[in-house]
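Page 37, continued from 36.
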């Protein structure tokens, strides 16, 4: 069987996007890493939020081997992944006004903490209000989104604003409107989305920048090791005990 031409084209598209965010977002990635390092060094807490498939990139930095132990997932019931039935309910919940405020009010997040909000389009009420409410509570907000949507679509929030309008730092994933990299004669819809690949890479680059900043300040980054290597569980147990007041996924 010959190699797939379209598979190769997808890799090329994804690599091109990764090169763009590496080169064009380097300053914002460094700023986001510095904000996280500031919070870790000051005794603050870290949270990540995303709805639908954007939650994948948020989950990718929580309780992760090689990741910061202090990153917690801020969850909104019914919007994390596609486990809710029907799956379309998750998309509907993203457009509900007031949901973000209720979630934040009942969460441990507070002034001085960092919240990373991931939303590809940034146009729905949930991510916009999450950013607005978080900043009102005194959190620093890092948005990971596609600025193209803010320039080529209409907001679904009553303010007319997008996620990017309510963040302290914005990382632009450069994903085109529609999130599909390939087309082919005979297939009516575009296909092969790359947002998860690029957004997850942005998240990991940001975390790497944070670790680098912490070391420069003389602070040991509270990193987790793989539980599948010898000594990993013991290492993680020590880290989680030392930072237990800032880790909420164990409680």
């Amino acid at each position: 069987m010959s190699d797939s031409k379209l598979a190769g084209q997808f890799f090329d598209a994804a690599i091109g996007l990764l090169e763009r965010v590496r080169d064009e977002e380097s300053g914002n990635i460094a700023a986001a890493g510095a904000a996280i390092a500031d919070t870790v060094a000051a005794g603050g807490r870290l949270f990540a939020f995303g709805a639908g498939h954007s939650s994948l990139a948020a989950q990718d930095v929580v309780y992760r081997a090689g990741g910061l132990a202090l990153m917690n997932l801020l969850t909104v019931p019914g919007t994390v992944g596609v486990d809710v039935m029907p799956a379309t309910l998750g998309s509907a919940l993203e457009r509900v006004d007031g949901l973000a405020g209720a979630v934040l009010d009942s969460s441990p997040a507070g002034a001085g903490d960092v919240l990373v909000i991931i939303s590809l389009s940034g146009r729905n009420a949930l991510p916009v209000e999450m950013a607005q409410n978080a900043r009102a509570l005194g959190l620093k907000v890092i948005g990971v989104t596609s600025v193209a949507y803010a320039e080529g679509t209409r907001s679904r929030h009553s303010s007319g604003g997008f996620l990017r309008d309510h963040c302290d730092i914005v990382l632009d994933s450069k994903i085109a409107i529609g999130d599909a990299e390939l087309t082919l004669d005979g297939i009516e819809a575009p296909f092969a989305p790359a947002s998860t690949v690029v957004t997850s890479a942005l998240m990991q680059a940001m975390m790497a920048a944070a670790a680098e900043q912490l070391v420069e300040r003389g602070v040991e980054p509270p990193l987790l090791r793989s539980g599948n290597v010898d000594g990993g569980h013991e290492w993680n147990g020590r880290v989680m005990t030392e930072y237990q007041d800032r880790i909420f996924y164990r409680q």
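Residues 195-216 form the longest helix (22 residues). Flag for discussion at group meeting. The CA atoms of residues 44 and 113 lie 5 Å apart.
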